[in-house]
Amino acid sequence: MIENVQEEIFDIVDEKGNPTGKTVSRSIAHKEGIKHRTAHVWIIDKNTNPMRVLLQKRAINKDSFPGKLDTSSAGHIHAGDTPCESAVRELSEELGITAKATDLNFIGTFDVSYEKEFHNTIFKDNEVAFVYTYEDKVDASKLVLQKEEVDCVEWISLPELFAARQNNDDRFCVPRGGLALLKNYLS
Predict the structure, then answer these.
(1) Which element (helix H / strand E) includes 159?
(2) Which among 54, 89, 122, 134 would be 20 to 30 A from 40, CA to CA?
(3) What is the secondary structure of 58-92 as a DSSP string?
(4) Spatial separation of the C-alpha atoms in residues 44 and 53, rounded to whole Å
């Protein structure tokens, strides 16, 4: 039986992340580098010293940065959805966390723009990322991971993460713009 999977559709956005009224499929957006939106969520544990964040290890079959440690939860914003709706959806889909919009703190946006080769295919990313924190207690051992997206999760101290990204540690693909927003938010 052939599964009929609907391709994701995104709003095409302007430089500030505002929808233009036009849409694009995921494959075309990443083939041509068309600007769209994503939602990123940092899960923070403020009860440790130093503070730590939960990172996800991307599944090896992901079309970008397979097998790399990334932001706690992130995903594309579907056409017609708000950034916050998408952030809540991604927490649920990827990690099994049931959150409400009021559980998230919006900390800003940053631009992502790169062109790299993954799995012998050029991947052009051009997006505005909307970034949130989730600060409720999370037991990583009880998360329900979406195996198509996430291999595993791990806690890392913020100083260790900042140092790893500053030193270009290739185990990580955490976006520098998102990490800068998090650092600014926490200071």
Answers:
(1) helix 158-166
(2) 122
(3) EPTT-SSSTT-EE-SEEEEPBTT--HHHHHHHHII
(4) 5
Q: Is the distance from CB of 61 to CB of 71 less than 8 angstroms?
A: no
* pLDDT for res 108: 98
Can you give the pLDDT at residue 44?
Answer: 98
pLDDT of 1 reads: 43
Question: Kind and range of the H or E element at 166?
Answer: helix 158-166
Between the alpha carbon of residue 131 and those of residues 1, 42, 168, the distances in Å are 39, 8, 22
pLDDT < 70 positions in the chain: 1-5
Kindly report the average pLDDT of the chain as a whole number.
Answer: 94
Does the predicted model carry a pTM greater than 0.85? yes
Cα dihedral across residues 151, 156, 159, 160: positive or negative? negative
Structure tokens belonging to residue 82 = 């708000």
CA angle, residues 58, 142, 92, in degrees to nearest 5: 60
Which residues make Cβ contacts (< 8 Å) with residue 35, sequence separation at least 6?
12, 13, 14, 15, 126, 127, 128
Q: What is the pLDDT of residue 5?
A: 61
